[in-house]
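Sanity check. The docking grid for 5-hydroxymethyl-3,4-dihydroxypiperidine depends on where the pocket ends up, so I'm generating a full predicted complex first rather than guessing from homology. Inputs follow.
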Amino acid sequence: MTPAYKFPHNFLWGAATAAYQIEGAWNEDGKGESIWDRFSHTPGKIEDDSTGDIACDHYHRWREDIALMRRLGLKAYRFSTAWTRVLPTGRGRVNPKGLDFYDRLVDALCAANIEPFLTLYHWDLPQALQDEGGWASRHTCHAFADYAALMVKRLGDRVKFWTTFNEPGVVAFDGHLAGEHAPGLQDAALTYHVAHHLLVAHGLATQAMRAANPSVNAGIVLNLWMADAVSEDSADVAAAHAAWERSETLFLDPLFKGHYPNAAYELVGESMPKIQDGDLALIAQELDYVGINFYSRNLYNAQGHIDHVEGAEYTEMGWEVCAPALRRLLNKIHREYRLPPIYITENGAAFNDEVSADGKVHDPRRLDYLKNHFIQTRLAMQDGVDVRGYFVWSLMDNFEWAHGYTKRFGLIRVEYETQKRTLKDSGEWYAEVIRKNEVSE
Ligand code: IFM
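Predicted complex below; grid placement will be based on this.
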């Protein structure tokens, strides 16, 4: 008999998306321009020269998409709201049609018994705010808090789970250091100011949301990569430890320990942001949950990072498939921080799946990837880690940022020319997992 891993009865099985990656309708019904509109419209920025102008056309097809969520039996749906849909220039004038869209979406989710899990910022800053300095300016933090309060006032009677930021590290580093994401800057000094302002904005927004509705569950979503050593040799272990301290603690420490990590100070020297009185307490206020996005690990030996592991499997993103690293990661953060309940807010894999002659999408590698990560999560829960839910990335194939439409992460295939949706084998299988509330090896 293959062992079955049973999950707690109220475990929140879900799937995730983000506004810019699926909505399309980039300039419809009064929506303003975001930094991702501007970035993807700039030649040479996106691998396949595509944009999110239409994406999955979810803005018009959300009813069909909720019907597919029902078919999957999702208990929860994680999505983001586009700031420029509701506040076209980031502050001031509200666009009622934008608010109405999310209002209808949330109503329909509730009617389908699907818990809405809302993210306020999944990377699409209003261009008007970028023009005033973007996240390098503290004014943006206050504008974000006002936007958060506005959304809670409108939707907080139905939406319980509110995430301030998705992956602040990616916003700071990919957008302001590597320049591969909007706004496409390459400025090391600015990067750490941005990182600090994202955390300040998180703190201000958390306060503003709670003031608007004390019953909201407020959290933040961090992407974490486990840092593994290639052997138990002390030099390899020390290298992995140092890499973790350098790259993964920049947000965890201020949020859950109330101070920046020493490694960050050593690393950035004079680029360290100006921390005002009260900032650290604001950032470290108690949260109702933390979301963890997990995809892969980094491997180290004493000489540094190992790019390729002989015999290992890689996804289309070039990320190693290593499910046990998720259990190790969960145990590590559980040990090292005093965390609120955890949700796995993203996990999934990009593979080049095709439609077969039978009209189906057979994606055994994605199915195996998910199965093994579910099992490792269950094992971590048995180890004592408090994981309350799991969101597969992604509900459907979508615009993968600088990679455009070249990477498919979905449980549902999207044919971009026709917008036809097809549930993949992994989606059929996931529906079974949710129905039985268990995973079998
Ligand atoms: O598509 C992204 C998502 O927007 C944020 N987390 C990682 C995913 C895959 O790269």
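Relevant for the grid: The chain has a mean pLDDT of 97.
Also worth noting: The radius of gyration is 21 Å.
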